[in-house]
Design brief:
alpha/beta
């Protein structure tokens, strides 16, 4: 019988941290990979399912009677947390060169307590690190801050108007002018095209559009092709063109033309439908080896190119 090998426990467990922290770190590391937008699109249905379940479980554990008995503590902590967060975020935005109104609106929009606080409190309570009264107070503060935030966002522009004359910090005096110049340059810049699929047809289209002065973005599922084209200095997004997150990263909202050259017919139809919904004014062309299949894409709003 071979000797049993010792397998070290996962890093979060060895450090005494919760599994939730390990999941967060895993997502943090995956965010640095080219596949992050593809993963975000695939996880979106699961995320939309479990977020309501999580908040329902939190609401079931909230004792309204206990909240009412400690309302003044809840109110004090709520005002303190939101005021401090709004001040810190607005100050950071201003220090990076944003205008007074933008800084104020950013602070008010992000002043609420984060949902991750609820997860931290739940784990701490399960391990006996946080008492029941503290759990009730923190949960009530987070819930109330999330409820109040939409109202604050509605009134934020009116409040921000009073800070129009706030000058930028001395070390960022030219930041606003630089941002405005870049924005003007983007508005007057070249036409933007997205090429999904970088096989022979995609490469041919890229060459033609690049010579015509288009600003091209490539969407490709082959990691080797992605690495090679990025090495050539081209803008490439790894993922499936039928994934809304991938299309958003590629700049679908500002695209003037979207060219779908992938060989898979079903993927092409799915991408055509999503692209047309995301960019109604864009020119959408598809590659098809059969006229009958191409007609299905034209019914979804695409132009046909036989190849």
């Amino acid at each position: 019988m071979p000797p049993r090998r010792w397998v070290p426990p996962p890093l979060p467990r060895r450090s005494g941290s919760a599994a939730e922290l390990g999941a967060f770190l895993a997502g943090f590391l995956l965010a640095t990979t080219p596949a992050r937008h593809q993963l975000m699109g695939q996880l979106a249905p699961v995320r939309d399912l479990f977020i309501p379940v999580f908040f329902v479980s939190v609401g079931l554990g909230l004792d309204l009677g206990a909240v009412a008995s400690m309302w003044w503590i809840v109110l004090f902590i709520l005002l303190a947390v939101m005021a401090i967060k709004a001040f810190v975020i607005a100050g950071c935005a201003w220090s990076f060169g944003f205008s007074g109104p933008v800084s104020i609106m950013s602070g008010l929009a992000l002043a609420q307590a984060g949902e991750f606080t609820l997860l931290t409190v739940s784990v701490g309570s399960a391990r006996g690190l946080i008492g029941p009264d503290a759990v009730v107070v923190v949960t009530a503060v987070v819930a109330l801050s999330l409820i109040v935030t939409p109202t604050m966002i509605q009134f934020a522009p009116k409040l921000a108007e009073r800070f129009v004359r706030v000058p930028p910090p001395p070390w960022k005096h030219g930041a606003l002018r630089d941002i405005g110049a870049r924005h003007h340059k983007q508005e007057a810049g070249p036409l933007r095209a997205i090429i999904a699929g970088f096989g022979p047809v995609g490469r041919e289209l890229y060459t033609s559009l690049d010579q015509a002065g288009f600003d091209c973005t490539i969407i490709e599922l082959n990691p080797d092709t992605v690495a090679k084209q990025r090495g050539l200095g081209r803008r490439v997004v790894y993922g499936d063109a039928a994934n809304p997150e991938v299309l958003h990263e590629a700049g679908i909202e500002n695209a003037d033309a979207v060219l779908l050259t992938m060989p898979d017919h079903n993927a092409m139809l799915a991408a055509t439908q999503i692209v047309r919904a995301a960019a109604p004014g864009a020119f959408v062309a598809v590659r098809s080896g059969f006229l009958s299949r191409g007609m299905q894409a034209t019914a979804l709003g695409a132009r046909l190119r036989r190849r």
